Amino acid sequence: MKTLHTAYRVSDLDTSLTFYRALGYRELLRVQPDPETLLVMLAFPGERVATLELVHRPGDGPVDLGTGFHHLVVQVHDLRAAVVGLAHAGLEPEPIQPFDDSRGGGTSWVTDPDGYRIELVEWPRGHADGISADLD
Length: 136
Known about the structure:
Number of domains: 2
Strand order of the largest sheet: 1-4-3-2
Pfam family, one: Glyoxalase
Radius of gyration: 16 Å
Structural class: alpha/beta
Mean pLDDT: 91
GO biological process, one term: methylglyoxal catabolic process to D-lactate via S-lactoyl-glutathione
GO molecular function, one term: lactoylglutathione lyase activity
Number of helices: 2
Largest sheet: 4 strands, mixed
CATH topology of the largest domain: 2,3-Dihydroxybiphenyl 1,2-Dioxygenase, domain 1
Protein name: Aldoketomutase
Strand content: 25-35%
Distance between the termini: 26 Å
Domain VOC: 2-123
Shape: globular
Order of helices and strands: EHEEEEHEEE
Helix content: 10-25%
């Protein structure tokens, strides 16, 4: 087994697509499984498969995140440049929080139009690409 992608239900598809395109996602395809539902599959450039699905079901009313969902993590290679670019696009990223580590790196956060939180992370120099059981 493996994880394929995450799906978010969104209130306003156009507004969400504007946000996620500014974040760097590109649209791969749209699927309409029934007349009330539109699925939009997204990926970052260089990703060969969809990693995020936006689910638009206007009849379900506004999105309510509740208390179960926490956040999505997106790795960036240059956090400072990413934050500047997102601010220029009007996305209002939070200030960079550097890691307490002399190797650099850090995090910033941005919130999508429905309230989903996204952590942007630049790993410190020498850190593995992602998190695994082998943290050395």
